[in-house]
Amino acid sequence: MNDVVGIIYPAEKKVGREALSIHFLQEELERLGIRSRVYFADSINLGLMSEHRLIMVSSHYENNYPILLQMIDKGGLSLQKENRDFPKLLVGGPTTVNPLPLKHVADFFFIGDGEALFRTLKEKKERKGTLTLQEIMDTVVWHENVFYEGRCEIKTAVCDLEGERSPLATVDGTVMIEVQRGCRRRCLFCLIGWTRGRCRYRSLDDIRLALSRVKKGSVEKVMLIGSDPFSNPELPDIITYLRKAGYEIGMPSIHVSDIHEYRDVLKLIKPRTITIAPESSERIRFELGKKFSDEDVLRAARTAKLCGARNLKLYFMVGLPAEQDKDLEACADLVNLCSSLAGMRVKCTFSIFIPKPHTPLQFAPFEGVDVLSGRNKLLRKKLRVRAHFTNPKRAAIQTLLSIGDEKVGKMLLQAYRYGLSYTGWIAAARKLGVELEDYFNEKTLEYVFGFECINTSVCKRALYSAYQKYLAKTIE
Ligand code: SF4
């Protein structure tokens, strides 16, 4: 097992098996001639983890950090990297733009598109003919996009996708394939818009080539993955090609403006569910960067219905800076109005706003558990459809893990010993003498975030001025 690379996805298998990142790592390692073994939170063989020299971790949500700790612990490994010679842990994925909360646990962090690491490894293999695990580990240590103790100014890797082999995840007759990465917009709260780089696409030829790897007759549906899929100029051709080939098509996210503009393409897809994220009331939504009105949402829902959709999912955030009761009431009114559209079943989710690193709203305060509980209560009273809400205590912990520093990393380890509940975190903060308000309060330009060691090519002053502009337009 020494020469087999471990891969961790810190969630249950039913979630993780759909993650393209896992398939990407497995396929790329295989192409280098390196075997791998995947572990999910509910894998029964976690004990085998101690036999690896290198484990790659795919990290998508801050709230999965505690699950990662549980997996490492169950695998019989020391949680703290100082007490562990091997395996070395290399963490990749969107949350690594703030590696600090996991700094005591993981040895290395890859920042940005993993393709950049595997390109370097492939070049090395081409020069030498073979590649050993030790050579992979040496490459990780020297790679310009890898962060570890003592390194700073690490840039995020941004790779073009055209011509790259596309990973596939096949689950229950559906194959997941990425058609696009990045986003044309830069909504002030969004990690994708500010840290994932410019829009990049996969061409029709690349998609065709990728699907030729799927076993004939094993797949009925193709799920097109991308945060801004219609920014791919070849998307209408890709959809036409897939329909002609007899596939059903799914798309988890479509922008409101694209629903109307590409209604003829949507008619080909006949989506059962359409997802729209209005985020907040019109006045706040516009200043966040989402330039569409409530009327646009209704029009998009009607168009989606004409295209065959029967379910409408709406996503909102609670606790955005400058939010007032009237904003929440406007959100509830919009949901209620959508639910009155005949033939559409509406589901809505109100998650709590989490300040994300390297975005203008990184400076925004976390409103506090009591205030947010009150806002959830107000919404529950106004809504006529069943909604899903985030627990404010869970959001408080996520805020710490999102924008926190090494001290939060220490708290995470301490809270793990106390059982990881909210009270466990409070007790951990008390024991370590950490003031949680330091992380929850609004920040000034002078506040030094731990994650400033990562360079996303956007200067802090520009982020701050975008935040101030937002406040000037929204505070009444
Ligand atoms: S449109 Fe969506 S993915 Fe793009 S920046 Fe805004 S929230 Fe992020």
Task: Break the fold down into its secondary structure elements and pairings.
Blueprint: E1 5-9, H1 13-16, H2 20-31, E2 36-40, E3 54-58, H3 65-74, E4 88-92, E5 108-110, H4 115-128, H5 133-142, E6 146-147, E7 154-155, E8 168-171, E9 174-178, E10 180-181, H6 191-195, E11 200-201, H7 204-211, E12 221-225, H8 235-244, E13 248-250, H9 256-261, H10 263-269, E14 273-279, H11 282-288, H12 294-306, E15 311-318, H13 325-339, E16 345-352, H14 369-382, E17 387-389, H15 392-403, H16 406-417, H17 422-432, H18 437-440, E18 454-455, H19 460-474
Parallel strand pairs: 1-2, 1-3, 3-4, 4-5, 7-18, 9-12, 12-13, 14-15, 15-16, 16-17
Antiparallel strand pairs: 5-6, 8-9, 10-11
Helix pairs in contact: 13-14, 14-15, 16-17
Bound molecules: iron/sulfur cluster.
